[in-house]
Amino acid sequence: MQRQQLISQRLTQAFAISHLDVINESHNHRSAPNAETHFKCVIVSTDFVGKRAVQRHQAVYALLQDEMAKGLHALALHTYTPEEWAAIEQAPASPACQHKKGG
User: What Pfam families does its record include (predicted)?
Assistant: First the structure.
């Protein structure tokens, strides 16, 4: 199973998700072709109600810690409650990588 699918599956199984985007952004970084090292995750869940951003991120990192040990280099986490998501409906764009090949 590809890492992108694995991340989606684990998040879906662990959280009550109403919106999920798992985007492979490895091509925007100094990575080999077809790398799965850099991901942006937009997660909307009622499980985040009453939790600070750091608590939300800690929960996601705990869920994916074995993937971090296997070469997952970076996660850009955007975690929202349904109410927060309804107010913005779009996660921030990812910044350009300072170390991209040819960049």
Answer: BolA (PF01722)
The residues near 65 (Cβ < 8 Å, ≥ 6 apart) are: none
Is residue 67 included in any domain, yes or no? Answer: yes
What tens digit of pLDDT does each residue of 62-93 get?
A: 999 999 999 888 899 999 999 999 999 788 77
Domain presence at residue 42: yes
Taking alpha carbons only, the member of 79, 72, 39, 74 closest to residue 56 is 79
Task: Count CA atoms closer than 13 A to 12's CA, side-chain side.
Answer: 10
Ramachandran region of residue 17, left (φ > 0), alpha (ψ -120 to 50) or beta? beta
- Cα(9)–Cα(41) distance, integer angstroms: 12
